[in-house]
Design brief:
8% strand, alpha/beta, two-stranded antiparallel ribbon, 11 strands
């Protein structure tokens, strides 16, 4: 980093548009990591002003107050105060506030001001404020706060120009009203801050109504106890239909491409281990996994769409009563929804749940949500065994099966939550208090950045742990060579062959052959690797090529076994990374053992019942 770089921290309440502002300033010049010693995500980016000044911008976790109730809020407070180990205090704090809801956001601005550091207030969403006829006397607000105030529209190109101009100009001085250290600030109570906010609003803001007319009209339907749940069910159903309708054609195209490359590699390379590694291991294993990236991105696209539109907090509010009945809470909804992408950020997201019992219950059920790593397995099996029929002439049968698998995870989570509630009874109140942001049109730029982040994470896993496991699987499937006079397939005499046949004694009641049983081992490191493992094992065994894995499965596997395997992955113990995060977040190996054990038992019983029942109708 250049010595002249100015270190800027973006802070604000959740839903203030802070991340959209960060995306506009930094664009693709971002890096995502974790804070030292914790699993909380941090985002940094760089921006060069028109004068050539380099800015290093840090997007801090959203927080409502320095009276921290969660690890995210503690991180934000400690970084701003300069007390976080290994993290220098920022040169400038940009406090982002929603101009349509200053009643809530100004309180935190006053807390930030009392730090005594240079501060700029960015009044964001000014376009929405004007549409609602909200008038803000910016010069008067700036005079009363004693800090610079600029208007921004984070979702509009050039909407941060005033902020960039202010930062590029004279450096803001420390707020004079912020005398005293952290201990003296603690003596000023919240009542004083609320009074200051009321006085400022009365003098600077004219607001015809507290909520937008459009929000009220939409919420009459979206938050209705009956129609709201119906709308939510339809939305989620259509999302999973879209995964197959939009994602599968691209998956097939990628599969054909890797098949073509594999055929050319096979024709160009001499017979030997190198050819087997490239054709069977890399193209057969790794190429099969990357083919499912489009379906994963389609799922993430709709999750980001719902998040950016402001609908997700309403879904959490809507489901609060239902989730309370099974021992969870409405605050569990967003962490659980995040777990559809990956259980790790979902488990980390439980930090917003203040009650310890509710938080532990959410952590234990989060792995039951169908993460994106399971999607390649589902897509492979559904494509191989479920015909592309249409139900009622509209719905894709394959999409219906995928929706049923996701629903199975949700119902399983509710059942486990209900059991936890009965084991650990709690009669205390768990009221849900949360802000419902205004509805807004998702911006293509923010959606694109979110998709790029998920694509990058997937490709890093693909070229990291999945590549390593694929090569290992190829090696143990190839060596040692069969003994002289061997009559069976060569792979039966390899390390993989011996391991798979031993494991089959455990999983045969579920309808799993030795190849499937073997694939469960690398799947514990990364779910997607099960597909790569199957592709490699069948390719080395001469039963498949890069485009024929589905045909190989259909030839060696019954429909009952396929359904059993789908159910296994719906409930099976999560990957080792998820268990490591459970250990880190709960500081307990006991909870890790409980999570792994109950999921293994549930998966085994559910798969056993599925296989035995399906055999009756096969």
């Amino acid at each position: 980093m250049s010595a002249a770089a100015l270190r800027i921290a973006l802070v604000g309440n959740p839903n203030c548009g802070k991340t959209a502002l960060f995306n506009q300033l930094t664009g693709g010049r971002q890096k995502v990591a974790n804070y030292a010693g914790v699993t909380i995500e941090r985002k940094e980016g760089r921006f060069t002003t028109p004068s050539g000044r380099v800015l290093q911008i840090l997007d801090l976790p959203g927080t409502y107050s320095f009276d921290a109730n969660s690890p995210d809020e503690q991180i934000t407070r400690d970084v701003l105060e300069g007390n976080y180990p290994g993290e220098a205090a920022p040169d400038l704090i940009v406090c982002v506030a929603d101009a349509t809801n200053l009643r809530l956001h100004l309180r935190f601005v006053l807390e930030v001001k009392r730090l005594g550091r240079p501060v700029v207030l960015a009044l964001n969403m000014m376009d929405a404020a004007r549409r609602r006829d909200i008038v803000i006397d910016v010069p008067e607000l700036q005079r009363r706060l004693g800090i610079p105030v600029v208007e921004t529209i984070a979702v509009k190109r050039g909407g941060a120009a005033a902020l960039v101009e202010r930062v590029d100009g004279e450096m803001p001085v420390a707020a004079s009203a912020a005398a005293g250290d952290a201990s003296s600030r603690a003596d000023l109570h919240s009542v004083d801050l609320h009074r200051q906010v009321r006085d400022m609003l009365a003098a600077t803001v004219t607001m015809p109504r507290q909520t937008a007319v459009t929000d009220d009209a939409l919420d009459r339907w979206a938050l209705h106890p009956v129609f709201g749940l119906l709308i939510l069910g339809i939305v989620m159903f259509l999302v999973f239909q879209a995964v197959y309708a939009a994602g599968k054609p691209m998956t097939d195209l990628i599969g054909d491409g890797f098949g073509w490359l594999g055929d050319h590699a096979a024709a160009s390379l001499p017979v030997g281990p190198i050819k087997s590694l490239v054709v069977d291991g890399l193209f057969g294993g790794l190429g099969t996994v990357i083919g499912f990236l489009p379906e994963i991105l389609v799922l993430f696209f709709f999750i980001l769409l719902l998040e950016e539109s402001g609908y997700l907090p309403r879904a959490a509010f809507l489901l609060d009563r239902m989730m309370m009945s099974v021992g969870l809470t409405g605050r569990s909804f967003i962490p659980l929804l995040s777990s559809f992408a990956c259980a790790i950020p979902g488990i980390m997201g439980t930090r917003s749940i203040q009650d310890p019992r509710d938080r532990l219950a959410t952590i234990l059920v989060a792995p039951l949500m169908t993460c994106s790593a399971r999607l390649p397995v589902y897509a492979l099996l559904i494509g191989a065994f479920i015909p592309m029929h249409h139900v009622f002439g509209i719905f894709n049968l394959q999409g219906l099966v995928l929706f049923a698998l996701y629903a199975a995870g949700i119902l399983g989570a509710m059942a486990v939550g209900w059991v936890i509630k009965r084991i650990h009874r709690d009669k205390s109140e768990h009221a849900l208090l949360m802000e419902l942001p205004s509805y807004r049109m998702p911006k293509p730029r923010d959606i694109a950045i979110g998709l790029w982040e998920r694509c990058s994470i997937f490709l890093k896993r693909l070229t990291g742990v999945i590549l390593a496991l694929t090569i290992i699987m190829w090696a143990i499937s190839t060596f040692p060579s069969p003994p002289t006079g061997a009559t069976g397939p060569a792979i039966d005499y390899s390390i993989a062959g011996y391991m798979g046949h031993y494991l089959q004694y455990i999983f045969a009641p579920l309808g799993f052959n030795w190849q499937i049983s073997l694939s469960l081992i690398p799947a514990f490191a990364a779910r997607e690797t099960a597909v790569a493992a199957l592709a490699t094992v069948y390719a080395v065994g001469g039963d498949s090529n890069t485009v024929g894995l589905a045909h190989a499965l259909a030839a060696n596997f019954s429909v009952a076994s396929a359904l059993s395997l789908m159910v296994w992955f719906a409930f099976a113990p999560q990957c080792m990374s998820t268990l490591a995060v459970i250990r880190r977040e709960t500081n307990s190996w006991r909870n890790v053992v409980i999570s792994f054990s109950y999921m293994f038992v549930v998966a085994y019983i559910a798969s056993l019942l599925t296989y035995q029942i399906a055999r009756l109708f096969a």
